[in-house]
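quick q for whoever's on today - can somebody do inverse folding on this one?? i tried earlier but teh output was garbage lol. tokens:
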């Protein structure tokens, strides 16, 4: 009784699909547009976290803590996605959009009377910039067309002729 030869793992459809996704992530992450978005988003998140002390409304503790937490979260979400998790960038960018919208409305939504001119101007401007960056990242990380994403690039014969 003869056994069928085992196929080469390099030709397995899962390996081929993973290799294609990795190559696509590398191409996307190395574009100047993606690098500018990622760097600007990191700087925006860090500014949002430090803005109560930069702008001078750190005495309004609820908004200061809010901006610190949201800024750090935004920087972490937006700075780590392009190269390492291309398939997840789309959903991470939408989470960053939610954080951006929260940044815009937070001077009116957090506890206490913190809606001063400084807080409103700061949070609205930073929130709009963060939202534009997140929407741009969502467009870069958009999943491929559903009709073509499941198609294999090479046929897998499974060792049979």
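ok took a stab at it. sequence:
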């Amino acid at each position: 009784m003869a056994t069928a030869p085992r196929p080469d793992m390099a030709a397995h459809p899962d390996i081929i699909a993973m290799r294609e996704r990795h190559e696509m992530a590398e191409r996307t992450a190395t574009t100047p547009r993606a690098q500018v978005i990622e760097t600007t988003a990191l700087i925006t998140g860090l500014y949002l976290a430090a803005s109560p002390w930069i702008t001078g409304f750190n005495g309004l503790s609820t908004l200061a803590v809010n901006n610190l937490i949201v800024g750090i979260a935004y920087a972490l979400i937006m700075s780590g996605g392009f190269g390492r998790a291309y398939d997840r960038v789309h959903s991470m960018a939408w989470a960053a959009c939610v954080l951006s919208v929260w940044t815009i409305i937070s001077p009116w939504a957090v506890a206490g009377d913190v809606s001063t001119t400084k807080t409103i101007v700061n949070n609205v401007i930073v929130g709009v910039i963060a939202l534009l960056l997140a929407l741009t990242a969502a467009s870069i990380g958009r999943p491929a067309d559903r009709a073509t994403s499941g198609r294999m690039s090479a046929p897998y014969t499974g060792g049979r002729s």
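fwiw Residues 32-55 form the longest helix (24 residues). also Residues 145-153 have pLDDT under 50 and may be disordered. so keep that in mind when u check it
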